[in-house]
Amino acid sequence: MDEQKALAGQIALVTGGGRGIGLAVARRLGSMGAKVAICGRDTSRLEESAAVLRDEGLAVLPVPADVAKADDVARLVSLIERSLGPLDIVVNNAGVGVFGPGQNATEEDWDRVLGTNLKGVFLVCRAVAPGLIQRRTGHIINISSLAGRSAFAGGAVYCASKWGLQGFSFCLAEDLRGYGIRVSVVCPGSVLTDFSPHAGKDGSKMLQPTDVAHAVAMLVTQAPQSFVSEIVMRPTQKP
Q: Is the Cβ–Cβ distance between 128 and 37 less than 8 Å?
């Protein structure tokens, strides 16, 4: 199938779609023919990114929203369905990170990271699940991290959010697979974005946002009988 038409007629949501991995995913899905809604908390960045995607000929709807807030999520999904139509693809990419010794983390750090990285995914999945179940089809793709599979000094709060995301995603996949809905996680290593510091690393050897977007494109174009539940991504050389 021509990739430019692979997702024709489908509606996608990418959270955290104004920059980095989210923007790359939105661009890839849009280039495959989907109408894409992007959300984020930074309204100006969201509008700028939407303008760039529109200039590239892609259909995009920017919606300011904080996925850690249930009311924002409900409004987000309702607006997408009214403006574009029922969702087919949901990419939970919004994420924040706080790094440092776990014993020094504040309650605010914990609430901020877990609120976006884990509660936010739960709220979005809860909001979109009824429609996907009714249509008995769809993809939910949660952008996790190698931090959801391994531990490192200074990563206690962030790793907790991603380990939780892994468990939530795998269980939700079992809850929804009987309805024809696939829930997958993508676990990249260090990606060259402004998300977290990469001091001392060679950016040319790191994963790029487009690499993650490529993995998402593969997941949403699987054959009907195929279910890839997890993709683990590493650079070919350690940066």
A: no
CA geometry: angle 60, 136, 148, nearest 5 deg? 70
pTM as predicted = 0.95
Domains of the chain with bracketed CATH: 3-233 (3.40.50.720)
Please tell me which residue in 122, 158, 163, 168 is annotated as part of the active site.
158
Q: Return the residue matching tokens 């468990």.
A: 167
Residue 37's H or E segment, with its range, is strand 35-40
Return the pLDDT at 7: 97
The Cα 93–Cα 26 span in angstroms is 10
List Cα–Cα distances, 201 to 167, 178, 192, in angstroms: 30, 43, 10
DSSP secondary structure of 109-122: HHHHHHIIIIIHHH
Neighbours of 41 (CB within 10 A): 18
Sheet of 11-15, strands arranged across: 60-64, 35-40, 11-15, 89-92, 138-143, 181-188, 230-233
Q: What's the one-letter identity of residue 2?
A: D
Estimate the crossing angle of helix 107-114 against helix 156-176, to 10 degrees.
30
Q: What secondary structure letter does DSSP report for 192?
A: S
The DSSP letter of residue 204 is G
Residues 61 and 36: their CA atoms lie apart, in Å, by 6
Task: Write down the residue that tokens 């007629």 correspond to.
Answer: 9
Q: Is 179 a catalytic residue?
A: no
Asked whether the predicted pLDDT for residue 203 surpasses 90, the reply is no
| Structural tokens at position 148 | 């959801």
∠ CA 167-14-41, rounded to 5°: 100
Model confidence at 157: pLDDT above 80? yes
